[in-house]
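Case study.
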Amino acid sequence: MLAWTIYISFCAVFVLLLLPNRMVRTARSVALLSAIAAFAVTLAAFWQHRSGELQTITRVPWVASLGLEYHLAADGISLTLLLLTGIVAIAGVLFSWNITHRVSEFFAFYLALIGGVYGVFLSFDLLLLFIFYEIAIIPKYFLIAIWGSTRREYAAMKLALYSFIGSAMVLIGLIAAYVASGARTMDLSQLAQFPFTVHFQMWVFPLVFVGFAILAGMWPFHTWAPTGHVAAPTAASMLLAGVVMKLGAYGCLRVAMALFPRGLDAWGFHLLGFGSWRDVFALMAVIGIVYGALVALVQKDFKFVIGYSSVSHMGFVLLGLMTLQQIGIDGAVLQMFSHGILAGLLFAVVGRMVYDRTHTRELAQLQTMQLSKVLPFAAATFVIASMASIGLPGFSGFVAELQVLIGTWHAYPRFTLLAGLGIVIGIAYTWRVMQVVFFGEPATNQPANVAPLPPITMPERIGTTLLVATSVLIGLYPQLLLRIIVPALHSPLFDGLWKGSQQ
Amino acid sequence: MTWIVRNLWLIPALPALAAGLTALAKRHQRRYSAALAIGAMGLSFLLSLCAFSQVMLAITHGQPSRQVVNFPWFEFGNQWLKLGWMLDPLTAIMLVMVTFVGLLIFIYSTGYMAHDDNFTRFFCFLSLFAAAMLGVIIANSLLLLFMCWELVGLTSYLLIGFWYHKPSAAAAAKKAFITTRIGDLAFLVGMLWLFSQAGTLLFYDQGAGCLEHSALTAMVAHLTGIGMAASTGIALLIFAGAVGKSGQVPLHVWLPDAMEGPTPVSALIHAATMVAAGVFLVARVYPLMAAHSDAASALSATTALQVVTWIGAITAVFAALIAVAQNDIKRILAYSTVSQLGYMMMGLGVGGVAVGMFHLITHAFFKSLLFMGAGSVIHGCHEEQDIRRMGGLSKLMPVTFATYAVGMLALCGFPLFFSGFWSKDAILHAAMGWSISRIPFYLGSLGALLTAFYMTRQVYYVFFGTSRLASHHEATPAAHTAPPTPHESPSSMTFPLVLLASCAILLGAVGTPAWPWFDSFLSGEAPIFAFAGFLEHGILPVMLTSTLIVFLGLALGWWFYGRQPILSADLPDALEQLQPGIFRVLQNKFYVDELYEHTVIRWNSALATFSDWLDRWVWNGVVMTVSNLVLGLSWLARSTDTYLVNTSFDEGCNTVTTSGKLLARLQSGRTQSYLRLVGIAFAALVLVLIWSARS
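After joint prediction, the assembly is written out as follows.
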């Protein structure tokens, strides 16, 4: 049944492409309905899927001579991310309600991206996964290049190039694994059982991991993220930060770590204090946390602040993965979900509620606009979103980051302090933008006339409520998701990982 | 397990519910929102009384005085994470104090905030704050406590910044939140460490909790790399959280600035509840703080408790010194609060839970009384906060004056009749007998002297002499036509004052050396009444000393400020005339803010700028270099293509064309040319034939 998420999205793409350009209202409705339908399908599956273990959805031979299959399956991790995609997709459509330029095309690209994302999360054949992964890149390019703002061609190209370099690395790794196993299959679970030699894993693991981690915004391969987020239209930034970055993290866990767990073992020697790839990537993750927060602190563009905050928060995901502790990886998956929701919310405020009305994102200009009086709803939303984003208890970010930190405490006690430092700086930058943008002082030389801005519309309110409610729900009752995440991590797929971590 | 223990969660849940309902209310539903908040708080108060009597009953019947309820929350790695609440004497007494003081402050706020546009929002935040604070108190899990603790921090941010259109208020709110979060970071790290050591964050869990014997023994035995027991490290980290919240040196800077919030907020948050949360936290994890490696050294203080004592003692004097030179009525009280919190910490360090907590409770009553009195003064003087511009209010605001005087005497520790005397005395007595050093005792005594002095100064400035309000207002041209006269506040404001004042006097009775009810209640024993308590070792001398110190402080205050009435607001302070240099240092709060401004904040922003630079130039530079390289390569490729590949291709094409053209001439189809060629060929043939025939 879950396969319908992909089909619904792509069907909607064709319907939208057939629509004449002036049928704006229909285009929006089609997009919204398909997003809701896909989410409803996921929700129904979530309801039935009690245990969180792997369930095959479709499995038919595809290119029999090469052993490729059209194999869709889902476990707790995929389901969590599918839910995230569904929620962010609906919110994204709601926050794009004001798009007037080439509407049906916009939504067509948008839904193609969503369909590709659904495909990645559901594929259990590696080549299929790779193909969906590539499908997702192309609409991103057009969404930014056509509907974007600041330096959009540059950002779109940068994003596309980074993504393609990453996927090239992944492809090399996958082909190497295919050849090395000699099993004539690209099936994820079969390859995960295959005992690749340690030597082989030692060079393929970093290749595939970095290939995916580029998309997860790992330092120092993160620079596509802020530029891309800033240039993208609101819905696309929501998807980029909310879902696409999770594709990378998902690939790291599902492909790189599941296939080549021995790649995380110790090298047997120390180089610059690093004893394994795990140390290297954990350090990069921590640097990303602190570094992203620091850079966010001095930005002059509102959206860049949020863009860099994404880099910082995704650092927690990668750090959680590298702990190789049950609790750390649970936290990492939960953080993927949580950050997806919250980044979506933050970008919605910045891009839709503020930028589309004021037509500026310069902090210095926003400071004089007294937005807390003009747009009280936007101010309240941003306060809530930033509270959630800095990890206030009661929101999803807290339980996720807490688990990551506890895992880190076991694996790398010193990094916990650094990550904690990142949290404090996170508070500082969040507070800074909040204060400047919404509670700034009117310029003294200007008359204190407050230019009336268009009021917040109903779709925006609904979208905000959806995202905030999700974050609070998970923050108060994380078991809802952990119920399916924890068993998924105990499936045979990750056996190698746990065996490795006990050594 | 009784009904009240099972339903203890109702106590924080009721204000939370009220906050939620108020949040949905319309802006003009003022009466409804106030009624909701006060009603919920009143019910919580009744429930707290229930809980309190339950504990009392348990103690008199000799039953265990601590009861816990734990429930699973979510799967946390390989195990279930549990949260829970508990009812023990410490919880019970804090519940009653917070709900009672909170209720009075809510009632007071209806008068104080009556003219504010955002009345409903104010009550929403107040209720939310109360809910979070009550959550901190009943938590039986460090995690739950931490969560409520953070919520307390958030709501206090919202309340300090309530008048966010004032830039100073917005800045103060931000400062409060960030400063306390620095302490909270240490708290979080301590909590993570505790979890990795003990495997649980529940305080008490039938022998398996982290404050129970087995976990404590394990933590004491576990040594860290630098030879410190894990328990000490954890205790110090948690204490750092308390330092942030309770405004201890060096994280005290936010508390005085937080006075930008509405006065009821100052009374609720910065006197009675939130700042006390830090002290409460130390009291709650006291077993961890006091955990010893072996029974032999059980009499000497642990490292953690020594740190607590020293920080407390230093804060007590440091803040009292600053308070001497302040001119804002609320700032004086704020520094006084910091100083008194230092006393509580010192009390916990030298004398244990009961000593520190007794001062916490008495202080909560008289300090909220003082803050609300100050609010009444500010309200009466039309938002004037500078004590130099007040004066002569004793006749105009008699109720406020009387209650304020009670609060002031209680704070100074005026002998026998005021609660502050007994609680401060207990601390000094414990400090006297401390095994490590006597210096905290001397510091404490000096603090007491300063307290009496600055409070006398304040009272003389505010209530005696002639009113200097009018003269000030005439000086400013934009003032009202008639100089405003100060007036007494409405009864909704004075009624809580009277109630609190009586508490400030009566509460002392429960903790005298003769009837140490408070002490024995906290330790779960039945109290014994005996006058012989006074004759115990060292009690009477300490009482006499502190009495002398108080009188000395009051007399000094009178000498400087009471002998001659203060005539003008612009005259320099009496102390300033005597020692201008020192006075200025004190007035500028020892330049701590400036120090932080120039060190921590500057370093941080430098680092941030550096990172941004790195991102802009180095990483982006790398990207640009790579892309330029690629561009260069492609340029090279294009040149090769254009000039090498293409040219040769073109050349090749040209050659072909030329030769084609040449050949084409042969077949132009012109008969004349053909004939000409045939003719030439024929001639050539003839010539060749002739040539060959001759040879």
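Observations recorded in class. The interface with chain A takes residues 73-78, 143, 146-148, 150-151, 154, 161, 164, 167, 170, 174, 177-178, 181-182, 185, 188-189, 192-193, 195-196, 604-605, 607-612, 615, 619-620, 623 of chain B (CB under 8 Å). Chain B has 28 helices and two strands. We will return to this complex in the next lecture.
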